Amino acid sequence: MSTSLTHFLHFPFLVLILLPTISVAQNVTLGSSLTSGGAANTSWLSPSGDFGFGFRPIEDNNRFLLAIWFDKIPDKTVVWFADGDLQIPKGSKVELTTPDGKLILTDPQGKVLWTAGEQVTGATYAAMLDNGNFVLASVQNSSDYLWESFMNPTDTILPTQFMNINRIDFKLSSRVNDTTYSKGKFRLRMHENGYFALYPVGFPSLTENDYEAYVNKTWSPGRNGSRFVFRESGEIYIVSGNGNIENLTWYPTYISPVSGQYYRATLDFDGVFRQYSHPKTFSNSTQSWTIERSIPENICLQLNGRLGSGVCGYNSYCNIKGDRKPTCQCPPGYEFVDPNNRYGGCRSSFPLQRCQEEDTSNPDNLFEFKTLENVEWPLSDYDKLDSYNETECRRSCMNDCNCAVAVLLDGTCWKKKLPLPNGRLDTDIKRITLIKIRKNGTTKEDPGPAKEDLHPTKDRSTLVLILSLLLGSSVFFSFIFLAAIFLVFFFMNKKLSKRKQTPSVMRSSLHSFTYQELEEATDGFKEELGRGAFGIVYKGFMEEMGSTNSIAVKKLDKVFQEGEKEFKSEVSAIGQTHHRNLVRLLGFCDEGQHRLLVYEFMSNNSLAYHLFGIAKPDWNQRVQIAFGISRGLMYLHEECSNQIIHCDIKPQNILLDDSFTARISDFGLAKLLMNNQTRTLTGIRGTRGYVAPEWFRNAPISAKVDVYSFGVMLLEIICCRKGVELDLGEEDKKIILTDWAYECFKQGKLRDLVDDEDVINDMVTLERLVKIAIWCIQEEPSLRPSMKKVTQMLEGVVEVSVPPCPYQLNTYVENC
């Protein structure tokens, strides 16, 4: 429809002729309800049966979504849903209540999870309409709906969903991915001031900063407001207040109206606003939605802002394939952060270059470049070098410890550092992209067979050869040598059998150091890194494959003296752990009375150093650190072959690597100390302020002691202060952080906990983390969640319910 036609149309009349013919809905009466997971009453259908409202099962029918969907097509595509962060369990109920006329969702215990409009009351009926709109209405006011899903869109709009932009801002939110309904990285917004915009938001915090829009169309709104129009024929446009038609820029630009089609328009998780069609009558169940057109044409090339991670996440790059959907790839030497979600970014699979002498003195011996054609991360550069050729660009980046990638374009060398946002493959502009990686550092080396297994095989082969020669000579000598050979075999097999009975540390790829080697590596244990309950840690340097690497050497103090077998067994168990949130054990020494452990060196010190220091990590960094610690503990508790309980979780035992990833240290060491070292006179292991209450009650100790310590530390991460602040004075209510945090939560004063503007602007995340922490510090261990559930709650996979008072077992309960 051309703009000139609007001079012949009066706007109200235009709206009337666009309205669909809607069948009379079968009203949902007061007191009606649906139950998730029930055999019956799981949905309310529209009169035509095209749409359903009710519960959609996700995750093996154990969790549900309150949603509206296309009911007649095989995949039951969801077009609207209540809060995507809700974790609706089986047995939950949605009800149109009597007599107040509210639509309320409750869990099996009766707790209210969601309400259709907090202030909406007085509905006498509800209805699922044939256009996909679910409404609450009253017979006393039939001219207007009290609440409708069309006025509260999620990621999708449907034909006849006319939005009056004058009344409210119209906004769609993308999802995290195709299978997760939480809010994702992108928004579509139409503002009453007259602009249509697609833009990214801060993720995962979801703070809507002033990120640059990647699609922005403006129009004159007119005096009486504007409307967003989606006709049944598939046409989508904006009608301004003065009646002008404002067309959006679609790719392709024109859609031929076809009858007998379902239509929808969705802001997909990759940031593209797409219009889809699906035949209402279909011949087989394999037919699916067809992309009719989209905005923008190429999302990979459209995102040009400096802020935000882009479609594919940090350190990855985006490419559009034949289906017009983006695919994500990692540069050489990098791997996906989550292999199951290739839109979540990439991380290096090698130790990054540090601005320290061991990495900068001879960088050519340690690093090399891999080349990509036409890959770019725009606006992430920090240096520009003109009139450079490829050799000069390589040399400049190699000698710059901050340079992770260099891009050469038309004689200009652009140097970039991590993290790299908004990466894309663009074949229209010819460029050379140089990726700096560590030599021999992209894959883990195969440790090869254990040393003890090599020599017996070789010796047996030699003995068989000797035996063959002897049998070819005189019978007398053959018998003599045969007897000797049998004796050798007997003693060798006895020795080998004894070795097999004792778990060998070498099987876990750990290196056995001599005390002299470690003394030389640490220059006589000269540079002390820290002290703890397990001993003193020293910095050292180790030559390996022509390069020098930093190490951390821990001298264990007063280790138990029950023998070499037990020590090696425990160290072997630690050495077999491999997780990105654990500090890796490289080797050990058990020479004489000396017991030492050798770890990879963490250059960014401990979490305590940053958390309680001057330059504190920002809010997003702290949230990611909490996520990393929880994943590491979940691995120790549930994914190791033998469960490992840390017993001393605290910020001093959380180290940070080059990329500020949290790495748990000192795990599994409790068994290596004598009992009178790991247990005080009261039988307590751990550090004051982080110790779980069951230690004081001589109750059975389980992995829940680590959950308690994590809860205390999570509050410290949130507030950037210690769990016990003795400097405040005994009368100050803030002295014990756990008590104060619960008091603030109970009184609805969470803002008092923090003085960081970023945190205050992200109250949803703050409240979720505080609730998780309170669940973790419950005095009753059975009430504490497992670390797996804690991780799921942190990541938004599992709902965080309101925690009870954590001090119910204590006679001192004035805080409850």
Structure description:
The chain has 816 residues and is of the alpha+beta class. The chain has four domains: 21-158, Orthogonal Prism (Agglutinin, subunit A); 317-438, no CATH class; 475-600, 2-Layer Sandwich (Phosphorylase Kinase, domain 1), CATH 3.30.200.20; 607-794, Transferase(Phosphotransferase) domain 1 (Transferase(Phosphotransferase), domain 1), CATH 1.10.510. It is 22% helix and 25% strand. The protein is built from 17 helices and 44 strands. β9 (103-106) and β10 (112-115) form a beta hairpin. The longest helix has 27 residues, at 475-501. The N and C termini lie far apart (65 Å). The relative contact order is 0.05. Residues 1-25 form the signal peptide. It is a single-pass type I membrane protein. Belongs to the protein kinase superfamily. Ser/Thr protein kinase family.
Short structural summary:
Keywords: ATP-binding, Disulfide bond, EGF-like domain, Glycoprotein, Kinase, Lectin, Membrane, Nucleotide-binding, Receptor, Serine/threonine-protein kinase, Signal, Transferase, Transmembrane, Transmembrane helix. The chain is of the alpha+beta class. The chain has 17 helices and 44 strands.
Strand order in the largest sheet: 37-41-42-40-39-38
Can you tell me the overall shape?
Answer: globular
Q: Output the number of helix runs.
A: 17
CATH fold annotation of the largest domain: Transferase(Phosphotransferase), domain 1
The percent range for strand residues is 25-35%
Structural class: alpha+beta
Total DSSP E strands:
44
Number of separate structural domains? 4
Q: Tell me which CATH architecture of the largest domain applies here.
A: Orthogonal Bundle
Question: Given this structure, which CATH class of the largest domain is correct?
Answer: Mainly Alpha
Supply the CATH superfamily name of the largest domain.
Answer: Transferase(Phosphotransferase) domain 1
